[in-house]
Amino acid sequence: MVNPKASKKAEPADYVEISLIKKSYKGILLESPESDKGIVLIKLDSGYNIGFNKKNIVEIKMIKKFSEKKEDVEVKGQADEPKIAMIITGGTIASSYDVKTGGVAPLTKPKDLFRFYPDLFEKVNVLKVEVPFMKASEDMDFKDWQKIARTAEKLLNDVNIKGVIITHGTDTLHYTSAALSFFLKNLNKPVVLTYSQRSIDRASSDANLNLQCSALAAISDIAEVMLVGHASTNDDFCYAMPGCKVRKLHTSKRDAFKIVNAKPFAKIYPDKIEIISDHNSRKKGKVKTDVKFEEKVALLKIYPGQNPDILDYYVKKKYKGIVLEIMGLGHVPTKRSKMPWTKKIKEVVAKGLVVCVAAQTIYGRLDLLVYSNGRELLNAGVIPLEDMLAETALVKLGWVLGHKDWDVKEKMLENMVGEFSDRLEE
Predict the structure, then answer these.
(1) What is the pLDDT of residues 385-424, one digit of tens each?
(2) Which of 147, 172, 226, 400 has the greatest number of C-beta atoms within 10 Å?
(3) Structural domain contains residue 366
């Protein structure tokens, strides 16, 4: 049982030692979850949270009392630096650690950012911070992409601002970067999306390097929508990656995002940029948003033995388009299968459903002319998207279908923002 006297001494945010019958743990005491007051939580020195059933605790010993002293931070040395703006949408990179809850709270002012990332202000002056919403990225949808685009448009058209950094959760960051690539027309300045896989309270956090490199990208000549993040697991440099050619390929590594079938725009170190590939440069003129979007689009992965009747569901629910992730160079089960997809695809295309196909292999390019299977797909009426990433394809399809007067096939096959690569890169 918990020692009542010991329990009263320790409060959330205090550094404590929790003793079980055979083992003890040290860490910061956190507030118990509302859903279960019978659980005691602490944040270990490693940065991970761990919970204990109160019934199993012998003693909670307070080692160090938390002192909630907040120094008034003065943002120094930024007046003469190039001016940028930040859009904060969520994600640990623009959040501070709450010692009482073990969670994070948004950093919404330059002073807050300076407290945790003073190195950022050696490179830029964060003139404005906009917070259109705070959301975990897995909860975002196209309306959130539209809000970010409209906020970016306003900031990019401010003559005092050289570039924009957008902080974002990692799970769907590559969907947002693809959306902004299509939504922001006549882009005149850098738009940099960045992230943190690990929170700032952890020694292995990637937040500081990602922000430093993002700052240099934001004041560079690269007028592109790009994602900036760790190039490797080391804290040495970042890549500036094209927004529509990047994908999250690891759940937890710091270099989770990789460029697919293309080259990065640049390697960015904390003190310099090395340009690697061609890019659009800064220019005069105003950015305009084109955020029309048809939400009735879907992404579906084909697997062995899958029943093609699933496509009837999308027709019934009045979906306008679907992207199929297909096998190999461009294969689905055909008439030689017990459940031929080519026949069903032909049926739903005739009913008005736009069917695009992308490679589920991720790397490489579709070529539906190599085998008869692929040719059958072409005859069924699919639009082959070569090396376009499936996530980018979904976003582009929704955007193209949002323009009711566009020829869908023509626009889906048009290389608008570098979503297709002339030459595939490793």
Answers:
(1) 999 999 999 999 999 999 999 999 999 999 999 999 988 7
(2) 226
(3) yes
